[in-house]
Specification:
Keywords: Basement membrane, Calcium, Cell adhesion, Disulfide bond, EGF-like domain, Extracellular matrix, Glycoprotein, Repeat, Secreted, Signal. Residues 393-626 form the Nidogen G2 beta-barrel domain. Pfam families: cEGF, EGF_3, EGF_CA, G2F, Ldl_recept_b, NIDO, Thyroglobulin_1. The protein is mostly beta strands and 1167 residues long. It is 6% helix and 40% strand. It contains 11 helices and 84 strands. Strand 73 (1027-1032) and strand 74 (1039-1044) form a beta hairpin.
Length: 1167
């Protein structure tokens, strides 16, 4: 059954033994288990027999001898361990009571605890229950009385097995003062008691292995004591588990309410619980029921407050009930004979194909059966029907590694904190490659023997002999693999747990790996050799197991060799469809043969690498399809023929002769393949449909239907606020909005009246106040000069005049008056003292536009001989007093930001420096993984790099089809930059480790940098100065470099205190080169060549791309899935934009409405 972890705040409730089992505890059983260690409880409503044992457990099969299970969890037989230990009831004080109970009160109480423990699930109503209570049981061989007249207390706890038609539950109750000891003596030493569930041994074709199990406690006594203090049901000391049907226990699901608040409100459980419990509660005397006293509580019952919680759940959660045949076990009881029946619970969805077709892969067919439905992959594809992959197509797998690993005798572990794991599988020859990053040298050499870390990946995609299937063909891409490795002779143990989570949007498999334990040390510089080996996999219902003993040879740097051994055992659990015949036809055993094993620790890059070739079957054939020596294309499948004959066949979605295969563009061949309001994204070997903005997939998973979004009345003008000159409408979510009067007005927002601000003293005494709508002005009286707040008969100099006169005051005087020094800029003022909109430098000939305060408007500076078009600021009189809205100076219209997400390029318009987030939308939908984005301001073209089918393309933002510019001899193009003056483009290739340049049509291409590069990514141009800048995020030696545009004059600008410099930007106005670093989590800037360096911001999460515009810097962040605006001068974040599609955002660029002015200052020969 699918479960979602949940923690709720539930009011406090606890259990005390002195309450003699209050209403929150089930009344004890009516039958007494005698001193024999077990007894068959045949219950007529359940379909298997089980045995109650005085040692604190219920067994679903004949228990083995005590010496084999005391202190060992899990044991070799099926078990529900309430509190397993060496316990004694022969002293006449400890008792075990049991009963079958189907009374409404008990069943209602059981439902109460179950539904509280699983608040997000549909409520259940059990139909049968078995109640077992261990009362005051002592440790074996220890007297209950100490001889001083004081009785020593034993442990008291209770187990309730509640069942209904589709599920079974275990409810365990541990009173707070019922836990007197947490270990029992066994063969002269104390052994910790255990609680949990186990299926016991599972018999395979050749031998038996341990089946699934679930441990509630660990080998630490504190975990046993915690049973009375903690919970998974919201009630202290009460634990609830869904257990499916014994003896399977394959899908044990713990309760989901684990928190207990510190405060509580008194209240009791339902009154009928209290009354019924008081009526039935016995007092035990030598096992006889003597009387039923009234209930006397030591304290008030405490109210439990339910909290509404609605996590995401899969649609159509249903269960399949399969009745297990009766299992007859003979034995003696208290004079009665019963039969126990629990229904078997699977988590494969019920229903029909018509209502669940979207649960199958788009490359699968659905078939109905009498008991449900199953999915099966179509010819040319393989998998479990839920997930299907094209035969022969190479596969990628990505994931993270977590955990702690000790090396040798080291007392300190090496921790894994989200280390990257990447794998590549050449499916048609069964070879898999695995790499894990950030492995320190203290651990890396010692991980080399563990090629098994990637072994399950090889098994999943192993070459198949006829009649045999690899892992993915049987169970798909969602399963859990747990492996235990024991190294000999030191008995170091390592546990490997891997959660395979299916296929992501890029058709890559996703895996999460956890490592816990210790490995023997392998000295630094040593190599490890692993010879070919075979391993038998045993297949059963939703479970696959294997075990083996393997050898490896360690070669030390001094030339010595050492052959070592480890024992290997793994369990793979999954969910399968039980209705079809394909799973029943699966062979019970298959042999995986692994050869060409390669392991290496790359100390220079802190990488551990594994590679191996894998084949599934009996491996007796020599056909090239099985040996991998066939020569078929990597996107083709090898079809074996007679003896050594074979044919190559291109995988689905590809065309060719099998030796060479080409991708089929399904979107181009059938533009309507995705239906209305959908966009087709071609991908290698397949395609994906994506709904347009404003649409989403309907219930069938294929048709795009309009998204019914809440109406923003402020945007569409359907609000009832006052006119915009007097009031503001603010959207508050849903269909709500708020009306508020603007400054200078008063009212409720729906009706606003002007405030008369002309109160005495508001203006200067020699000025007149004029009230205006929402504001006021002050004007000096005739004969006076000033701004109205200060008036004088002498005219006050303006800002421009003060600026000009301050510079001229330091000038030299010549025969014709003051002469400024050569090279000095002097502002020009008009007849009213205001700045002239266009200012020019008298010596250099440069001109630029300014605002009314004399500040240069970015992007307007021109060279000698040309003049920018400037807006006349003097035609609007400057406002006096407060204004009704901020005074905004917009840049030339049309400037915006372009950024890349997987499958699209979006834009955000800029108003001034402010992102107009409400107007952001997609510019291009592209079936690619886009990394870098650049903009050509001359032809209004956007350029991008993509790595799905590595290439560089362009498209006009004013409309038109994408045009491929570079399609060959590129492996992983990432950064891209445009020289709008030289009409060239530059890009980095992180696989080929080089920088190239070409004309904007892709011609005249050549390599300009191809040495001393490891991971080049970001690249940027400075066309007027003829400079090129790039970043290399080589983890061992990250750096930022520069050169001329032809690659000459190369030099390192920054190399210290860098981590992962992902993004670069250059602002030609300030001559600042800025970058973001995902390793140091900083944004920094420098003037190239000056050697200065300053920090703009720190605490960034995972920045990737960066661009600049005026005073602002904009960057993308992978963790925040956002575009963030930063004020470069203030060093603070201004705004954040999160697109509707919440995926990683890659490159970002500024698309200027007008090209920055300038020309090459040196002869550039990049082409």
């Amino acid at each position: 059954m699918f479960r979602y972890p949940l923690t709720l705040k539930i009011s406090l409730c606890e259990i005390r033994l002195t309450d003699q089992f209050p209403s929150s505890i089930f009344h004890d059983g009516r039958k007494v288990l005698q001193s024999s260690h077990y007894l068959l409880i045949p219950i007529t409503t359940l379909s298997f027999s089980f045995q109650i044992n005085t040692n604190g457990f219920v067994a679903t099969a004949q228990p083995t001898s005590e010496s084999t299970y005391l202190g060992n969890m899990p044991p070799k037989f099926g078990i529900i361990a309430a509190l397993l230990g060496d316990l004694d009831t022969s002293d006449g004080v400890g008792k075990v009571f049991f009963r079958q109970d189907s009374s409404p009160d008990v069943l209602t109480q059981a439902a109460h605890y179950i539904n509280r423990a699983f608040p997000e699930d549909d409520e259940v109503s059990p139909t049968h229950a078995v109640v077992i209570t261990w009362v005051n049981v002592a440790t074996q061989g220890e007297p209950q009385s100490r001889g001083d007249g004081i009785e020593k207390k034993g442990n008291t706890f209770q187990l309730v097995i509640a069942s209904l038609e589709t599920a079974s539950y275990a409810i365990l109750l541990y009173p707070r003062d019922g836990m007197q000891f947490s270990s029992t003596p066994v063969q002269g030493s104390n052994v910790v008691m255990h609680a949990g569930f186990s299926k016991g041994s599972v018999r395979g074709f050749l031998f038996s292995s341990q089946g699934p199990y679930y441990r509630t406690t660990t080998d630490d006594e504190a975990s046993v004591r915690a049973l009375t203090e903690e919970t998974n049901s919201g009630l202290r000391g009460i634990w609830v588990y869904e257990i499916g049907t014994s003896p399977y226990f394959t899908n044990v699901a713990p309760g989901e309410v684990t928190d207990l608040p510190t405060e509580a409100t008194p209240q009791g459980p339902p009154e009928d619980y209290e009354e019924a419990a008081n009526a039935r509660r016995p007092v035990y005397n030598d096992g006889q029921q003597v009387q039923y006293p009234p209930y006397e509580s030591e304290g008030e019952q405490i109210e439990v407050h339910p909290i509404q919680y609605q996590p995401h759940q899969p649609d159509n959660q249903e269960v399949l009930v399969v009745d297990d045949p009766d299992i007859n076990v003979d034995g003696e009881s208290t004079g009665e004979s019963y039969q126990c029946n629990f229904p078997l619970l699977f988590s494969y969805n019920l229903g029909t194909c018509a209502s669940n077709r979207n649960k199958c892969s788009q490359f699968a067919d659905c078939r109905d059966y009498s008991s449900g439905y199953c999915c099966s992959c179509r010819p040319g594809f393989y998998g479990n029907g839920i997930q299907c992959l094209a035969e022969g197509k190479p596969q990628r797998m990505n994931g993270k590694v977590y955990g702690k690993v000790y090396v040798g005798n080291s007392p300190s572990p090496v921790e894994f904190t989200s280390n990257d794991l990447h794998s590549y599988i050449v499916v048609n020859d069964g070879r898999s490659y695995v790499a894990i990053s950030d492995i320190p040298y203290t651990l890396g050499p010692s991980l080399q023997p563990l090629s098994a870390l990637g072994g399950v990946i090889g098994w999943a995609f192993a070459l198949e002999q006829p009649g045999f299937k690899n892992g993915f063909s049987i169970i798909g891409g969602e399963f859990t693999r747990q492996a235990e490795v024991t190294f000999l002779p030191g008995n170091e143990k390592l546990t490997i747990r891997q959660e395979f989570k299916g296929i992501d949007e890029h058709d890559h498999l996703v895996v999460s790996t956890t490592l816990e334990g210790r490995v023997p040390e392998v000295l630094h510089g040593s190599t490890v050799q692993i010879d070919p080996y075979s391993e038998i996999y045993q297949y059963s219902n939703n479970l696959i197991t294997s075990s083996s003993t393997r050898e490896y040879v360690v070669s030390s740097p001094d030339g010595n060799t050492d052959t070592r051994t480890f024992q290997w055992r793994q369990t793979i659990t999954f969910q399968s469809c039980q209705h079809g015949e394909s799973f029943r036809d699966m062979k019970p055993t298959q042999m995986l043969s692994v050869d060409q094993v390669f392991v290496m620790y790359d100390a220079g890059n802190n990488l551990i690498r594994f590679a191996m070739s894998n084949k599934i079957g009996d491996i007796n054939g020599e056909n090239p399809c099985f040996t991998g020596r066939h020569g078929c294309d990597t996107n083709a499948v090898c079809r074996p023929g007679q003896e050594t004959q074979f044919t190559c066949q291109c995988a689905a979605g590809f065309n060719g002769d099998g030796r060479t295969c080409y991708d089929i563009d399904e979107c181009g061949e059938n533009p309507r393949i995705c239906g209305s309001h959908a966009i087709c994204n071609n991908q290698p070997g397949t395609f994906r449909c994506e709904c347009e903005d404003g649409y989403q997939f309907g219930n069938d998973g294929q048709t795009c239907v309009e998204v019914k979004r809440p109406v923003d009345s402020c945007e569409d003008g359907t609000h009832n606020c006052d006119i915009p000159e007097r009031a503001q409408c603010s959207y508050s979510g849903g269909s709500s909005y708020i009306c508020s009067c603007l400054p200078g007005f008063i009212g409720d927002g729906r009706a606003c009246q002007d405030i008369d601000e002309c109160q005495p003293g508001r203006c200067h005494q020699d000025a007149v106040c004029y009230n205006t709508q929402g504001s006021f002005t002050c004007q000096c009286r005739p004969g006076y000069h000033g701004d109205g707040f200060y008036c004088s008969q002498e005219r006050t100099k303006t800002q421009c005049e003060n600026h000009r006169d301050s510079l001229q005051g330091s000038s030299e005087f010549g025969p014709r008056g003051p002469r400024p020094p050569v090279g000095q800029y002097i502002p020009t003022c008009d007849e009213n003292g205001a700045y002239v909109p266009m200012q020019c430098h008298g010596s250099t000939g440069h001109c630029w536009c300014v605002d009314r305060n004399g500040r240069e408007i970015p992007g307007t500076r021109s060279g000698p001989g040309s003049r920018p078009m400037c807006i006349d600021n003097g035609v609007v009189p400057p406002p006096v007093g407060p204004t009704t809205r901020p005074d905004v100076h917009p840049l030339p219209p049309g400037t915006h930001l372009l950024f890349a997400q997987s499958g699209r390029i979006e834009h955000i318009p800029l108003e001034g420096y402010v992102m107009k987030k409400g107007d952001a939308k997609a510019v291009l939908h592209l079936p690619k993984v886009i990394i870098g984005v650049a903009y050509d301001c001359v032809e209004k073209m956007v350029y991008w790099t993509e790595i799905t089918s590595p290439s560089i393309s362009k498209a006009s933002i004013q409309g038109g089809e994408p045009i491929a510019v570079i399609r060959s001899d590129v492996d992983s193009p990432e950064g891209i930059a445009i020289d709008h003056l030289g009409r060239t483009m530059f890009w980095t290739d992180s696989m080929k480790d080089r920088i190239e340049v070409a004309s904007l049509d892709g011609s005249q291409r050549r390599v300009i940098i191809d040495s001393d590069l490891v991971n080049p990514r970001a690249i940027i141009t400075d066309p007027p100065n003829g400079n090129l800048y790039w970043a290399d995020w080589n983890r061992d030696a990250p750096k930022i470099e520069t050169s001329y545009m032809d690659g000459s004059n190369r030099r390192v600008l920054v190399k210290d205190d860098l981590g992962l410099p992902n993004g670069l930007t250059y602002d030609s106005q300030s001559s600042l080169l800025c970058w973001v670093d995902a390793g140091t989590h900083k944004m920094e800037c420098t003037h190239p060549g000056h050697g200065d360096r300053r920090k703009i911001m720190e605490g960034l999460q995972y920045p990737f791309g960066i661009t600049s515009f005026g005073k602002n810097i904009y960057y993308t962040d992978w963790r925040r899935d956002a575009v963030i605006a930063v004020d470069r001068h203030a060093g603070k974040e201004l705004d954040e934009f999160q697109p509707q599609k919440r995926t990683k955002i890659y490159g970002i660029a500024t698309a200027y409405a007008q090209c920055p002015s300038g020309k090459h200052t040196r002869a550039i020969h990049s082409i």
